[in-house]
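Hi, does anyone understand the following?
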Amino acid sequence: MNHPRPKARLSRSLGIPLTRKCVRYFERRPYPPGVHGRSRRGTSDYQVRLLEKQRLRHQYNVSEGQLRRAFDEAARGVGKTGDTLVALLERRLDAVVLRSGLARSIYQARQLVAHGHFTVDGRKVDRPSYRLRPGQVVEVRERSRALPPFQLAATGANADESPRPYLSVELTGLRATLLREPARREVPVICDEQLVVEFYSR
């Protein structure tokens, strides 16, 4: 899902930078866009919960329907619904590609997956929403390895300073393995997931 609004403007609306490139724009103007962006506006409980839901949705670049279905599945599971929801989203193929350092943003990760550049356990998968199970291996296809985005990724240019403990990553081999279910404290998502649960439970 590609959102038509410029990423920097969307980042300012949500109050968080959505990509590394947006960080400098966000730091320069850390207030909502528009003529009245600097004005102080009162917020209702509904607005606070809506903002958190939108933050979570846009950090994973998913549609409203996809997020709602993930919430319904999390609500049926065991454990805290908010933690389970984030874990389900984090196991999406495009999210794993991003966290592994094989893409520079969730938007690039989604595009690369949709264009068929990845395999899961040796089989081509072109659905960004494909949910990985622990033990599954994600690799860049042999025919795609010479492309500039993957040559750059192999140097570690997109990698986080601290690798995710639920992933085993070999950047030189353009390969990542999901070791286990992600724990909420390990996922670098800026969101109060309890407010998202309250939004959908209202």
